[in-house]
Structure formats: C-alpha cells, structure tokens
From TrEMBL:
Record's subcellular location: Secreted
Name used for this protein in its record: Fetuin short form
Pfam families: Cystatin
GO cellular component: blood microparticle; extracellular matrix
This protein's UniProt keywords: Disulfide bond, Glycoprotein, Repeat, Secreted, Signal
Biological source species: Cyprinus carpio
Gene3D superfamilies (alphabetical): 3.10.450.10
Length: 300
C-alpha cells in the first residue's frame, strides 16, 4: 500500500511538471486568456505611470476582437483602482491596498489594446479616464471625512513645506531630501481650526543635511541608481506644528526609473483644479498644453 501511495505521488508530480507555465502559454487573444491580458495591462500601465500612485486591476468590463487580424488583437475595457502605494514605493503591487471609500477612492476606466507578439501578450495602446469618487456622495456617507484639495492649494503646500523641513531637521540621514511631488492633500475642519493631511514623495540630493539650509537651491537631485526616494505623510492641525513620518527606500529597490517631474502630466488631460494624478495616455497629445509646474511649494 505504501508503494502505491509513493507511486501516485510521483505520477502527480510528473504531471504537474509537464503542465505549461505562464511563460510557456502561447497567447492567441482568446477569451479564456483574458486573465493573461489583464495582468499584462496592469503591469504595463503601472510601468509607464510616472506620477502619483500605483493602480490595481479590479474588473474586466468589456472585450472586442477582430477575428482575422495577424497578429491577433483585442481591446479590453478594464477598471483599475488607485492604491496607497506611491510609485516610489518598492512594495509589490499585490501587497498594496486600494483606498477605502472614506479616503476618496480613485478609479480609472481604461480601454487597452493588446496583441500577440511572439506568443506573448503585448500592450499596444491604452487610454484611461481617471476620476476621484464624488465628494458630494462622500459627504452624505461620511460628513466628517477629510475632503481632497487641489494639489496646488497654497495652504496645503505650505504644510508640506513645513513638514519636509521638520523631517530634514530631525533626520538621521546624512543627505538632504527635497520634494519630488505632492501626492495628495486633504482637509478637515476641527475645533482647533483647519487641518491638512498631506502625502508627498521626496528624493535624495547631493547636499548634506548641514549645508542644505544655507544653499538649498543648489542642491540637485541624485539620478538613476544613485538616488534614494521616500514617501511622507504629514498632519497639521490648526496652528500647531505638523507631524510628519517618512519612509526612505534604498536606491536598489526602486521598481522602475524615476524622472523628476517638470510639469503636471498628461498635457491637459488633468482636470482643473487637479486633486489627483490621472493615468496619462500612452500616446501623448502633442498639441495640448498642460498647466505649469504647481505641485512644489516655492520660497525658502
């Protein structure tokens, strides 16, 4: 009996080893292969998303395919939701949580064109409509929940500036960090006054913490695999000093190359005033111009 059990286990193991893995499957745009396509779409969109937060696949809403194209081609309508992981965060996407309704969810409805290239699913194009949840609906469900502010809100940016100064002053890191971009600003009124809750990404510079305050403008962000990035959350209640917490990620853990943002992305695709970073189209519209760089506070 013991020999039969061992034999059955060996047969099962050999059968499992003979099954095609994800890398062995030839993608042919078939409906039963849509999961392969949606996973590739999720990965590709995040790899090309250079601002804000990572997005996670939620559902497939539609599909259309031409029967006689070579290579085959399919257009999938999918829904993605913004996670709490900023793009500088090296955490794998499957470990990133999507936002709760009380945090103002952000949803992207995308049409993704996928074809087969050498038997692999390959994204050819995508366009997404990215929207935060309705503030009016949120207020009816949670009147006391913080509401999103525009990313260039002057008071919100001032709270970010003060929080970053506080981080650098109390940091054990030798390098000085400067603002990369503001991810979110929300506000709430309390008995002590207006409160600001901010999230922002920071980047390491070539200045030390000691020399930066005297010569901040000359501090240049480190590039490529030399740079460490970080993500901060700050809270400022009324006239009190802000509280700030930052995570710093080692350079080798950055999931994809970062580019210092020179202006707001999407060349006009962002709604004005913008409260979120939308997923930009893969093919930018060259004739459209976006608003100026307003996501960094200015001044000393």
């Amino acid at each position: 009996m013991r020999e039969l059990v061992i034999l059955a286990a060996l047969v099962s193991a050999l059968h499992a080893a003979s099954l095609p893995t994800g890398t062995d499957v030839v993608y042919k745009c078939q409906e039963d292969q849509d999961k392969i396509a949606t996973l590739e779409a999720e990965s590709f969109i995040n790899d090309h998303h250079r601002h804000g937060y990572k997005f996670k696949f939620v559902s497939q809403d539609s599909r259309s395919a031409e029967k006689k194209t070579d290579p085959c081609e399919v257009v999938l309508g999918i829904t993605l939701e913004e996670t709490e992981c900023h793009i500088v965060n090296p955490k794998p996407l499957d470990q990133c949580e999507t936002r709760m309704e009380t945090q103002t969810k952000v949803t992207a409805k995308c049409n993704v064109t996928i074809s087969s290239a050498e038997g692999k699913a390959e994204v050819k194009d995508y366009n997404c409509d990215t929207e935060p949840a309705s503030h009016e609906i949120l207020v009816t469900k949670c009147p006391d929940c913080p509401s999103l502010l525009p990313l260039h809100d002057p008071k919100g940016l001032e709270s970010v500036k003060t929080a970053l100064q506080k981080f650098n002053q109390g940091s054990d890191h030798k390098s000085y960090f400067k603002l990369m971009e503001v991810g979110r600003i929300s506000t709430q009124w309390m008995f002590s006054g207006q409160s600001f809750f901010s999230q922002f990404a920071i980047m390491e510079t070539n200045c030390t913490n000691k020399e930066a305050p005297q010569n901040e403008e000359s501090c240049k962000a480190l590039c490529g695999d030399q740079a460490r990035y970080g993500f901060c959350k700050s809270t400022k209640v009324g006239i009190e000093e802000p509280e700030v917490e930052c995570e710093i990620y080692e350079a080798k853990n950055i999931t994809h190359p970062m580019k210092r943002p020179a202006q707001f992305p999407c060349n006009g695709f962002a709604k004005i005033p913008p409260t979120i970073y939308p997923i930009c189209p893969l093919r930018p519209i060259l004739f459209s111009r976006g608003p100026p760089n307003f996501v960094r506070p200015t001044g000393n």
